[in-house]
């Protein structure tokens, strides 16, 4: 019997491959089916929604039998909220699964390298320093909700004031904002009609400093005075301290947090965080690792992979707010960072000044083009690209420098594996690799790879 679209079947998830694809073995069938959001060992009921070129995919309908590995999740929103995938799996099992997934992807493309396992996050809960909550409704025409997208839904929003991947301050701020918006009968922005007002609530908090930035993001379709909300937020009993309350206007048609214009309602439009003894000034929309203590593990490991930097010129490509550049700068001749987001580059320059580093240079631009503007020649290159990896043309230019050593930091191991094929074809060998878990409870994982140029 062949698997057909629309069938409802049952089977056991035998393993999970990256990102969160369960490989389901169906009794009486030779083919396996990919079903997302399950755990190894679960018996699941699913509907087949795709059959193409011999591959089958299904949509999870029900957990028929729990996995022997399964535990009670820490968060009461788990299962409804789409933010976390593995809170019902013990943390050591999460680590083992992520390490196996990364190794499997690297083993397909690399030979004779050392895989050094996975490093855990210092915090397993309340680790995030940034949340982008969405306004919407949990069911069509239902009451106003503020939180995360419901699992598997583009429209429905689950109010998540008890979310466990952030500390309690986030929940208090969320509830305060939601109550005010309900009282004022403010409606949310509808993705299809592009009508409505409330879009997102952005909350950022320094783990080390306790400084909090709150940003209410709306369309420009109404004029609102948030002065009452401002006073309510400032009167909250929080563990941290609100240093800025902002109102950002966003009329972009895309469902993303975008800044057309920002007004400061209170305080300032930045906060400070500390990493590895360095100070960072962070604006609402600039990139910064969302797990501060985990980022210290990531960057310490990257620094160890990079090795000696004395008297060397280092290129930090896709440099964000310049975190890696500034960690390396004290023991390097010069560090040049290139980043496409201009706001992040401005922040990097400010941060270098805060940390009294005068051997850092930051350039705003697409790496593919901006790299041609640099007169210096690098001795080694650090790569930390976005999820989609490195543009093929940029990768060829990077290879063209012929440096002896590169360190590639990746937040998506499938993109990393693709780029490693090119790098190895062009004469680089993967020597070492290690995974770092910055996102407990989710399927995301960071990977660091050391590449050495081969001489034949």
Keywords:
456 residues, alpha/beta, OB fold (Dihydrolipoamide Acetyltransferase, E2P), Rossmann fold, 3 domains, eight-stranded mixed beta sheet, seven-stranded mixed beta sheet
β-strand number: 22
CATH topology of the largest domain: Rossmann fold
SSE class: alpha/beta
Instruction: Give the helix proportion (percent range).
Output: 10-25%
Could you name the CATH homologous superfamily of the largest domain? Vaccinia Virus protein VP39
Largest sheet: 8 strands, mixed
CATH architecture label of the largest domain = 3-Layer(aba) Sandwich
| Overall form | globular
In round numbers, the mean pLDDT is: 95
- Low-confidence region ranges: none
Radius of gyration: 23 Å
Count of runs of 4 or more consecutive helical residues: 9
What CATH first level of the largest domain would be assigned?
Alpha Beta
What order do the strands of the largest sheet run in, or round the barrel if closed?
6-21-22-20-19-16-17-18
End-to-end separation: 54 Å
β-sheet strand percentage: 25-35%
The number of domains is 3
